[in-house]
Amino acid sequence: QIKREKPENIPDLKYLVKEKFTALESKNSDSDLQRNEKYIYFKDQLKEMRKQFCHQSGNDNEAIEQIDEDIAVTQSQMNFICPITQMEMKRPVRNKVCGHTYEEDAILKIIQTRKQQKKKVRCPKIGCSHADVKGSDLVPDEVLKRAIDSQNKK
């Protein structure tokens, strides 16, 4: 359409895109989602998991408790993962300013590299707004270290 028009008659592109998007959006419906093969597969897997949990335990409450326990364990294990290395921490340090933990070597290496570049270090934890991490802000997180060690002994 733009190629056919004269340069002085260029249409409002934002309006045209918005119009096209609205037209496409109005074609989408919940019935399309119900027929989507990935959505159907996901729902089937959920049903299958629910069946397995209900067979394993006599009643639904036990099944729900088991799922909750699995989620709690998964969340605590997630806290053992360094946001920088994406590996389990061996020497976790906690940032006194924002409270996030990292693998000591990894965060110190970042601080050193950024210092050489004369730049500040942003907290590598996604969503954190702390924009000036310093080595002096870091303290060993003994509680987390003990939790990781005891988890690994199990």
UniProtKB/TrEMBL annotation:
It is found in: Nucleus. The keyword Phosphoprotein does not apply. CDD domains: SPL-RING_NSE2. GO terms for biological process: double-strand break repair via homologous recombination; protein sumoylation. Pathway: Protein modification; protein sumoylation. GO terms for molecular function: ligase activity; SUMO ligase activity; zinc ion binding. This is E3 SUMO-protein ligase NSE2. It comes from Calonectris borealis (Cory's shearwater). The gene is Nsmce2.
